[in-house]
Design a protein that fits this description.
Elements (H helix, E strand, L loop, with lengths): L1 H16 L3 H4 L27 E6 L4 H16 L1 E7 L3 H15 L4 E3 L2 H6 L5 E4 L3 H13 L3 E4 L8 H12 L4 E3 L7 H11 L6 E9 L19 H5 L31 H12 L7 E7 L12 E8 L4 E8 L11 E7 L2 E6 L3 E6 L4 E7 L3 H15 L9 H20 L3 E4 L4 E3 L4 H5 L16
Parallel strand pairs: 1-2, 1-4, 2-3, 4-5, 5-6, 7-10
Antiparallel strand pairs: 7-11, 8-9, 8-15, 9-10, 11-12, 12-13, 13-14, 15-16
Helix pairs in contact: 1-7, 3-11, 6-7, 7-12, 10-12
Keywords: Signal
Organism: Aquipluma nitroreducens
GO molecular function, one term: nucleotide binding
Length: about 450
C-alpha cells in the first residue's frame, strides 16, 4: 500500500510539472465512477478518538462564522478550537473577549500566523483571510503538516491552482474548499437529477450574483492604525499606502487583493456551474465585459459584469452575471444558478434550495429546500481528516483550483477588453497578442512572502 501511494503521488507530480494538473486530477464530483482518486494515509494519522486541534486565521468577517461552526461541532466532531489569528491585534483582542464570554474559557491569540504554523500541537487551520493570502497560506500550512479549510476563492490567480494541488498531494494534506453548497443535501440531489437526465441534455449553466453593493467612497490615505501589522496584512501583494478602503473588507474591490464579486460571492456559483454542467476542465473561449455604471468611488472592479465561457468540443456554455444594485430576480434566484437542458431547466436559489420546470409548459418537477450545509461541509472536512481520505471530500482542493480559475479567466478578459482563447491543459492563452494575458496568470510575490517551489 505504501509503495502504491508513493507511486501515485510521484505520477501526479510528474503530470503536474507538465502543466496538465487541472485536467489530470479531477475531483470526485466531476469524475466518472471509473475514476478513483488515491487514498492518502500518512503515518501518525489521528484516529476517531483523538481530538483535532484547530486554529482560525482571519477573524474579522467570515472567520466569525468559522468560530461559531467549529464550536457548534466541537463535541460531535471531537474538535477543539485552540487559537485565533489576525494581523489586526485590536480585532484579535475583541474576538478573544467575545469568545471567553460566550464559551466560558480563554483562547490563545496570535498576530503572526506563521507562529501558528510552527505550533506542532495544532492539527488544522481554517482560512478566512483576504483572497491574496489564500493560496500561499494553504501551501505553507501543508508544508507545516496542517490540514486546511480555505475560503473561496482558493486562489488569487490561475497559477496558484496548480500550487495548492501540488502541495496537498506532496504533503499529504486534506484541503477543503469553502464552497459549502457541495455538502448541501438539496444541491447534491439537484446535481444528481442533472446527471440522471431529468431536464435532458444539459448544455448551458448560468451563474447569478445579484448583491447590494453600495458606494464605498474614497477614504484616501491615512496612518496605519495602532495594532495593525500592515506589512503582514499585505503579505505577497504590493504594499500600497494604507487606506481604510482596504482594511477591512473593501479589499474585495481592488485587484491586488480581491477578485471582484465573480471571485467573491461568485465562486459558489462558478463551482456549481461546472459541477452541474458536468465539465471537468477550464473553457477554451472566454469573453467578459462590464464596468462601473453606478458609483464614482475607489472600487477598481466592475459593478456590472457579464462573462461567457465556451466549451466548443463539449457543445456547452457557461453564462455569468454580476449586478451590484437594483435588479430583477430570475425565477426567484438572485444569488444562485440556472441549468438548461433540452427537456426543461433547474433553478438553484442560494445554497440550499432547487426547483425544476419541465417541458414547454414549464410544469413543476422535483424540488427541495434543506438548510445546514455549512455544518455539513465542516463535518465532511473533519471526517476526511480522520480518514486521511481525499476521495470522501465534498470540496476537495481540485474544485478550488477549477472554480477560482474560471472566475480569474473572466476577469482577465474583462481587464484586457478582448475575447481570449485558452488551452486548458497547458493553462496558457493561445493565439496572437496574448503576452499581456499570459502575464496575468500569475503575480510577482513581494519578499519575503514568496510562493515556494513544490516539486
Amino acid at each position: 500500500m505504501e509503495k502504491e501511494e508513493k507511486n501515485s503521488r510521484r505520477n501526479f507530480l510528474r503530470t503536474a510539472a507538465t502543466g496538465a494538473v487541472l485536467a489530470a486530477v479531477t475531483p470526485a464530483a466531476f469524475a466518472s465512477e471509473s475514476v478513483k482518486k488515491p487514498v492518502i494515509i500518512p503515518a501518525g494519522a489521528k484516529g476517531a478518538n483523538d481530538r483535532l486541534r484547530v486554529a482560525v486565521l482571519g477573524i474579522n468577517g467570515r472567520g466569525k462564522t468559522h468560530i461559531e461552526v467549529i464550536m457548534g461541532l466541537a463535541e460531535k466532531a471531537n474538535v477543539e478550537l485552540v487559537c485565533l489569528s489576525d494581523p489586526d491585534l485590536n480585532i484579535l483582542q475583541e474576538r478573544a473577549a467575545e469568545f471567553e464570554k460566550k464559551y466560558g474559557r480563554k483562547i490563545a491569540i496570535e498576530q503572526d500566523f506563521r507562529k501558528v504554523f510552527d505550533d506542532k500541537t495544532i492539527d488544522a487551520i481554517t482560512l478566512a483571510t483576504p483572497n491574496h493570502w489564500h493560496a500561499l497560506q494553504t501551501v505553507w500550512a501543508c508544508q507545516a503538516g496542517k490540514d486546511v479549510y480555505v475560503e473561496k476563492p482558493a486562489t488569487h490567480n490561475i497559477s496558484e491552482g496548480r500550487k495548492i494541488i501540488e502541495a496537498a498531494y506532496k504533503y499529504n494534506r486534506i484541503v477543503q474548499h469553502g464552497v459549502q453548497l457541495r455538502s448541501s443535501v438539496a444541491i447534491r440531489e439537484a446535481v444528481k437529477h442533472l446527471e440522471e437526465g431529468l431536464i435532458g441534455r444539459v448544455y448551458m449553466s448560468r451563474g447569478l450574483v445579484y448583491r447590494w453593493r453600495p458606494d464605498i467612497g474614497n477614504k484616501g490615505i491615512s496612518q496605519i492604525p495602532a495594532g495593525v501589522d500592515y506589512d503582514l496584512w499585505c503579505g505577497p501583494a504590493p504594499m500600497r499606502p494604507f487606506t481604510k478602503n482596504l482594511v477591512h473588507y473593501n479589499w474585495h474591490w481592488h485587484w491586488n487583493y480581491g477578485n471582484g464579486d465573480v471571485g467573491n460571492q461568485g465562486i459558489h456559483e462558478t463551482d456549481l456551474c461546472m459541477w452541474g454542467l458536468g465539465v471537468n476542465s477550464l473553457p477554451e473561449r472566454i469573453t467578459s465585459m462590464g464596468g462601473k455604471f453606478l458609483w464614482d468611488d475607489c472600487k477598481e472592479v466592475p459593478e456590472i459584469q457579464t462573462s461567457i465561457y465556451h466549451y466548443p468540443k463539449e457543445k456547452k456554455i457557461i453564462q455569468f452575471e454580476v449586478r451590484n444594485w437594483c435588479t430583477n430576480l430570475e425565477d426567484g434566484a438572485g444569488v444562485g444558478n440556472i441549468f438548461y437542458g433540452d427537456k426543461g431547466y433547474l433553478v438553484v436559489k442560494g445554497y440550499d434550495t432547487y426547483e425544476t420546470y419541465l417541458g414547454e409548459k414549464r410544469e413543476k418537477g422535483p424540488s427541495r429546500s434543506e438548510k445546514g450545509e455549512l455544518d455539513l461541509h465542516f463535518q465532511n472536512w473533519f471526517d476526511a481528516i480522520r480518514a486521511r481520505d481525499m476521495s470522501i471530500q465534498n470540496g476537495p482542493v481540485q474544485t478550488g483550483a477549477l472554480s477560482s480559475s474560471l472566475a480569474h479567466l473572466g476577469n482577465i478578459s474583462y481587464r484586457l477588453g478582448k475575447q481570449l482563447e485558452f488551452d486548458p491543459v497547458a493553462e496558457r492563452f493561445i493565439g496572437n497578442d496574448i503576452e499581456d494575458a499570459n502575464a496575468m496568470l500569475s503575480r510577482d510575490y513581494r519578499a519575503p512572502y514568496l510562493m515556494p517551489e513544490i516539486i
